[in-house]
Amino acid sequence: MRLFLAIAVSFFVFFRVAATEPVETPPADFIPPKVLSMPLPRYPATQLKLGIEGKVSVSFTVQIDGSTSDVTVIEATHKDFAREAVRAVLKWRFTPGLKNGQPVPHRMKAPVLFKMEPANEPSPSPANQADR
Question: What is the pLDDT of residue 43?
Fold first, then answer.
């Protein structure tokens, strides 16, 4: 907790998940999954302490119940960021993709960014970050 408070004095930590996108172009009769919730990953303590930012590109399957599975790291700036991104993606929930009105599994990809910004720029509340 002390580490976070010391860093929070000059920096707020924030995460950004860019829009998800299909791995392949879906057929015309397909309705893609829509995000219901995207819990944020934890910022790895070592990288936070050192002020290191990172990016992880992942692919995953949205199942017919809207859960995610088969998370694969395509690229990561550090293994600690990759581990936390995978943990977070497994908690994401979607409406399932629909083909001919029926739910179908669908492969997606998304970048997960771990960034630090100066305290005078807009970012999530530190109280919210402390809970993560």
Answer: 95
Q: How many CB atoms lie within 10 A of CB 128?
A: 12
SS (H, E, C) the chain: CHHHHHHHCCEEEEEEECCCEECCCCCCCEECCEEEECCCCCCCHHHHHHCCCEEEEEEEEECCCCCEEEEEEEEECCHHHHHHHHHHHCCCEEECEEECCEEECEEEEEEEEEEEEECCCCCCCHHHHHCC
Burial code (b: 16+ CB inside 10 Å, e: under 16) for 94-120 equals: bebbbeeeebbebebebbbbbebeeee
CA pair distance 75, 78, nearest whole angstrom? 9
Please tell me the pTM assigned to this model.
Answer: 0.71
Asked if the model's pLDDT at residue 66 lies above 70, the reply is yes
How many beta carbons lie within 10 A of that of residue 45, not counting itself? 11
Percent of the chain with pLDDT over 70: 68
Residue 102, both tokens: 């029926």
